[in-house]
Automatic annotation (TrEMBL):
Ranges that cross the membrane: none
Similarity comment: family membership: Belongs to the glycosyltransferase 1 family. Bacterial/plant glycogen synthase subfamily.
Pathway: Glycan biosynthesis; glycogen biosynthesis
Source organism of the structure: Gemmata palustris
Its EC number(s): 2.4.1.21
Name of the protein in question: Glycogen synthase
Length: 501
C-alpha cells in the first residue's frame, strides 16, 4: 500500500518551540508517521526560540506573498528537520509577528508579562490569520501534493476554511483533505468580528453556524470546515460533547459527532524509558525494577533534601500548578498523606497562590516535603523513576503524558478518571488485580477526600500486599502507549478521509 503525503501544521513543535503538549504531538506524530513509510512534512512559525534552539536551518529561496486585508506581506520560508529524523520542517518567517519571544523580558509565543500577569498579545488574531494563509500559499512550493493537511488547535483553525472555501478549485488543492485536532477545547482563539477584514474570507461565513462564536472563533472554524475532527483521547471526545467540558462547543460537537473521534496521544519511549534513561540513578526493566528502583528513590530523596528512608512512600507530582491539574485537592489532602508517613515531592510552575501554599507546607514539614518551582527536565525523569506513586488528579485532562511516563517507569499513577487518564490507567480493583490488568489507581469525584482514600488504598497494597503492588508495577511497565500505535490509528483515519482506504 502506497504511503500517504501529509502536511502537519502547528504553532509549536518540540525541539523548536514549546509551551505545552501540542509541541510534543507535532514533533512525535510526524516522525512516527514517517517511520511507517509515509511522506510527512511539518510547518510552523519561525520564532526567536527556533533561532535559540540550535537546530540547523537553511534558506529555501521561497518567498510567499501573503494577503492581509488590503496589503500583501512578504513571507520568507526556511527549512530544517525534526531532530534525529529526515522529516522536513518548514519555518514561516515574518519578524513583526513571530520574532518577539524573549524569556528575559517575559515575552512568550502567545503572551507577554504585563504588570506581573501574563496577557495575550493583542494581535494574536492577525498573527495566526497570517500563519494560516502562509501555509495555504506554501502548498504549491512543497515539492509534493499533500493528501492531508493536519491542522492543530485554534492557531491553525482557519486552514480547513481556506481549503474548503477559497482554494478548493485551485490547481494542486482539489484532492487535499483536512483533519483538525483539538488538544484542549478551553483555548479557542476568539477575536472581534473586525478580524474578518484581514482573512480574505467571504463575509457571509460570519454566522452562528460557521465562524461566529462570541466573535470570530478559530477553533469553531476548524471544527466546522475540517473533513474530520480528532481530539486526544476517546473519553475526552465524549466529554467535550457535554456542558461540563465543552466550553460552549458541546452543541456543535453533538451535531457533528459523526466526524469526531478520539485518538490517544503517544508516549515518546526514546526519551522516556527507564531501561536507557541516563538522567536517573539506575536503569531498569520490568525484570530488574525491584532491584534497581530503590537507587532511584534514594537519589530522588537526596536531590530534594529529604531523609533517605527506603520505607517511606514517596508521592511524586509534576504539573502546571493550576486548578485544572488538581493541585488544589492535592494541597487539601497533603497533610493527610504526611500523617500516613509519606514524603511528597512536587515539580512545577503556575499560579502564585499554589506556590505560596506549597512553600508553607514545606516550611512546616521540611523532612517530608520537597518542592522545585519551575521546570527541570532532569528532575522530571528523577521523580518519575524515584517515586512510589505518581499523583495526577486532574479536574479534566484531554490526554496527559505524565501518567504514561509513570506507567513505563513502574510508578503507579493515582488519577482522576477523566479524559486520557481514564483511557490509559486501569484501576486496581480486586477484579482487575485478579485478572492481572491493573496498572494504577483511579477515582471519580473531584474531592480531596476521594484522592486521599485512593492513596490510602494504594498504600495498603504497597505496605500490606506487596505481591499485588508489584504486579501492578510490572503490568504497567509492559503497556504499549507508543507513538507508533497512535500513528497507525491516524493513518487509518487519513486514508478514510482521503478516500484511499
Amino acid at each position: 500500500m502506497a504511503g500517504l503525503r501529509v502536511l502537519v501544521a502547528a504553532s509549536e513543535v518540540v525541539g523548536f518551540a514549546k509551551t505545552g503538549g501540542l509541541a510534543d504531538v507535532a514533533g512525535a506524530l510526524p516522525a512516527a508517521l514517517a517511520r511507517r513509510g509515509n511522506s510527512v512534512s511539518v510547518v510552523m512559525p519561525f520564532y526567536n526560540s527556533v533561532r535559540r534552539s540550535g537546530v540547523p536551518i537553511e534558506r529555501t529561496g521561497i518567498v510567499l506573498p501573503v494577503p492581509m486585508g488590503d496589503r500583501v506581506l512578504a513571507c520568507r520560508v526556511y527549512r530544517s528537520h525534526l531532530p534525529g529524523t529526515s522529516v522536513p520542517v518548514f519555518l514561516v518567517e515574518h519578524a513583526p509577528y513571530f520574532e518577539r519571544d524573549d524569556p528575559k523580558s517575559g515575552r512568550g509565543l502567545y503572551q507577554e508579562q504585563v504588570g506581573g500577569n501574563k496577557q495575550d498579545y493583542g494581535d494574536n488574531g492577525a498573527r495566526f490569520v497570517f500563519f494560516c494563509r502562509a501555509v495555504m500559499e506554501l502548498v504549491p512550493n512543497l515539492g509534493f501534493a499533500p493528501d492531508i493537511i493536519h491542522a492543530n488547535d485554534w492557531q491553525t483553525g482557519l486552514i480547513p476554511v481556506y481549503l474548503a472555501e477559497t482554494h478548493r478549485h485551485n490547481p494542486g488543492y482539489q484532492r487535499i483533505r483536512s483533519v483538525f485536532t483539538i488538544h484542549n477545547i478551553a483555548y479557542q482563539g476568539s477575536f472581534p468580528r473586525e478580524l474578518m477584514n484581514f482573512t480574505g474570507l467571504p463575509g457571509w461565513l460570519y454566522n452562528p453556524g460557521q465562524l461566529e462564536h462570541y466573535g470570530l472563533n478559530f477553533l469553531k472554524a476548524g471544527i466546522v470546515f475540517a473533513d474530520a475532527v480528532t481530539t486526544v483521547s476517546p473519553t475526552y471526545a465524549r466529554e467535550i460533547q457535554t456542558g461540563e467540558f465543552g466550553y460552549g462547543m458541546e452543541g456543535l460537537l453533538n451535531n457533528l459527532h459523526w466526524k469526531l473521534s478520539g485518538i490517544v496521544n503517544g508516549c515518546d519511549y526514546e526519551h522516556w524509558n527507564p531501561a536507557r534513561d541516563l538522567r536517573i540513578a539506575a536503569q531498569y526493566t520490568p525484570e530488574t525494577v525491584f532491584e534497581k528502583k530503590a537507587r532511584c528513590k534514594a537519589d530522588l530523596q537526596h536531590r530534594f533534601h529529604l531523609p533517605g528512608k527506603p520505607a517511606a512512600p514517596v508521592l511524586g507530582v509534576i504539573a502546571r500548578l493550576v486548578a485544572q491539574k488538581g493541585i488544589d485537592i492535592i494541597l487539601s489532602a497533603a497533610q493527610g498523606f504526611l500523617d500516613l508517613g509519606c514524603q511528597l515531592v512536587v515539580l512545577g510552575d503556575g499560579d502564585r497562590e499554589y506556590h505560596d501554599q506549597l512553600q508553607a507546607l514545606r516550611d512546616k514539614n521540611p523532612d517530608q516535603v520537597g518542592i522545585y518551582l519551575g521546570f527541570n527536565e532532569t528532575l522530571a525523569h528523577v521523580i518519575e523513576a524515584g517515586s512510589d506513586l505518581f499523583l495526577m488528579p486532574s479536574r479534566y485532562e484531554p490526554c496527559g503524558l505524565n501518567q504514561m511516563y509513570s506507567l513505563k517507569y513502574g510508578t503507579p499513577p493515582v488519577v482522576r478518571s477523566t479524559g486520557g487518564l481514564a483511557d490509559t490507567v486501569v484501576n486496581a480493583t480486586e477484579e482487575n488485580l485478579a485478572d492481572r490488568r491493573a496498572t494504577g489507581f483511579s477515582f471519580n469525584d473531584y474531592t480531596a477526600g476521594a484522592l486521599y482514600e485512593t492513596v490510602r488504598w494504594a498504600l495498603t497494597l504497597y505496605r500490606d500486599r506487596p505481591k499485588d503492588f508489584k504486579q501492578i508495577v510490572t503490568t504497567a511497565m509492559v503497556q504499549d502507549w507508543s507513538w507508533d500505535r497512535s500513528a497507525e490509528v491516524y493513518e487509518r483515519l487519513y486514508r478514510r478521509v482521503a478516500g484511499l482506504s
